[in-house]
């Protein structure tokens, strides 16, 4: 059975090398994963069911201009999130 939980998704803008971190806030816990490219992040977020709402509507795929932190709501399978390499802050 899936362990579906409501989360808040936030994105820490890319570092100088282009890597960005996606955060899944589950209550007081924060699950993080860093991706090498924005494209990789958007592809996996889409497959997990995470959507990001922008002023241009809902985006679930690569967006070139993600230089500010974006926040949205989602419901995801927390077990799958962990299988995909997200780590909880201690």
Question: Could you describe the 3D structure shown?
Answer:
- The longest helix has 11 residues, at 38-48.
- Helix content is 19%, strand content 42%.
- It has helices at residues 38-48, 78-83, and strands at residues 4-12, 20-26, 29-35, 52-54, 57-59, 71-77, 87-88.
- It has one domain (4-76).
- The chain is globular, with a radius of gyration of 12 Å.
- The model is unreliable at 59-68 (pLDDT under 50).
- It is α+β, with helices and mostly antiparallel strands.
- The chain contains two helices and seven strands; from the N terminus they run βββαβββαβ.
Question: What can be said about this structure in brief?
Answer:
The chain is of the alpha+beta class and 90 residues long.
């Amino acid at each position: 059975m899936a362990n579906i939980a409501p989360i808040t998704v936030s994105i820490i803008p890319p570092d100088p090398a282009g890597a960005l971190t996606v955060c899944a806030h589950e209550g007081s816990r924060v699950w993080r994963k860093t991706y090498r490219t924005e494209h990789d992040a958007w592809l996996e977020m889409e497959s997990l069911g995470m959507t990001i709402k922008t002023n241009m509507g809902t985006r679930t795929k690569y967006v070139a201009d993600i230089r500010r932190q974006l926040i949205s709501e989602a419901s995801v399978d927390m077990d799958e999130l962990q299988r995909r390499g997200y780590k909880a802050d201690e």
